[in-house]
Every structure is written in structure tokens, then in C-alpha cells.
Design a protein that fits this description.
Length: 290
Amino acid sequence: MGERGFDLPLKATREVMDRREELADRACEALALAGLPACRGTSQDRPGANVRVDPLADGGVLVEWGTQEELATAVANLLESGVDPSNLPHAIRHYETVQTCMRDAVLRILTSAGFQAARADMHTYGSAVHVEGAHPLIPLVLSPPDELVGQGLPSPPPHEEGAMTERAAEAVSRLREQLASDVFDALEAAGFTVHQEGRSPAEPRGVLLSVDPSEGLEGGVFVRWNVAHALSRAAMESAQREGTQARTFQHYGFVTSHMHATLISVLTSAGFQAVDVDSEMDPYLIRVVR
């Protein structure tokens, strides 16, 4: 009994907490390799996947998706002012879409990577994912043979620099740049790490945004998902060694295809038109228009 006459929640033992901390580290690593911004939970959650350990005996490892503070605050203010549940403002509907999409993405990516994960109790943990255990993580080859270096890198934009294509008019180019800026802001607000072609680090992970200057439908604003370079290289090596049924290669393909669909859903929810380019050279390229 507690001092006030009621039972206090039991806390997990040190041994259990040590196992949870190790599991949380591995889950965080798996999400980061998949291209998601992931960090161990802090007192002030950051955008992306926040992995934390609940110290209660019936707790565990939890992953919650955080958007940028501005989006979350806007939604909180709307809810505080009172809304009609049958006619929710766009900001609230978009926030709920982001949370639903990213809970599903986190859950499925962790499961593909060998973790035991499920939706956490909504009343206690909201939209969090509960990570209960893990099989051995997919083995990664961080230093593959020389012939594999460079494979698995982000695909070039639809038209490589220097190709013989006619450039769009200056007014069209300005509209594309503005659209790209709006797409960048919307995806960043949703919690993603966004890199723009030509301004990104050598190995960008997350969303890669590009603006093709070509005239007509060949040009435009494009996005695609990038996993960590270590995972893409390991996937190429495993496919060469074991074939396309190799576990690492299958995981790489799953992450890429699932985040492709997730990006389309989030962009559509944000008010953009996002469609497959249907390119044999890059089957996961997305064109974004107004």
C-alpha cells in the first residue's frame, strides 16, 4: 500500500530495464537505417520516431511519432477552442492522417526488421507502437566489396544534368521552385527529414526532393524515399550472395515501397496531388503537383 492508502504502480526491475534499454537502442537503429529520423526519447520529443522506455512493470519499449511543434500546437489550440467532431478542421484531419500513417509505417518496418511489435494501448499510450522483443537484427555489411560501392545510391532526377532537354520558361520554373518549397515545408512539418537535390549531404536519408527544369510533363517537382546508405549497400550485397529472396534485400524493398505509399498519403492529406511517375528507371519516384 502507498502512503495515501492505495497501491502504487509497480516498476520494472533493473534487469528488465536493462533489456528494454538494449531493445530500444536496436529499434532506434533499425528505424534510422530505414531512413526515418529516430532518436531515444527525451523530455522534449523531437520530430520523427521517438523511442522511449516505460519504467513500469507492465510497460516496455514505445515508439511515438512526433511532428514539428508548430503543427502539433496548432492542432492542440483548435481542440482547446472546441470543434465539431462531424466537421473537423483540415489541420486536425491532416495531423491524424500523419499519425495513423506513421504508426503503421513504424510498426511494419520494425516487424520487417525482425522485431515483435504491436499497437500500444490507445487509452494509455495514444498512437504509440509497443515493441516487445526482437529476433537477431538483419545483418548489415557496412564495408561491402568495392564493386558494390555506389550501388543503392539515390537515383538521379528524371533527366540527368547535361541531357539534351529543353528547359521550362522562367515563370514555370519559379512556380516549381515555390511548389518545391511548399512540399519541403509540409513534409518537414509532418516530422520527416527532407533533403533537396544538390543541397543534400553525400548520403541523404529520408525524403529527397528534386526539381527537374525540363519543359512540359517531363519536368516538375519530384520526391522519393532514401534509406540509409548502409542498408542499401547491404541489400545489394545480400542479393548478389543469396538472390533476391535474401532477408536484407526483402527488407530494403519493403521499406522503400511502404514509405513510397506513405509519402503519397501524407502529401495528399497536406493538399498536394502526388502520383507515381511510373518510370522503369526509378519505380518509386513521385511527382507532386498542385
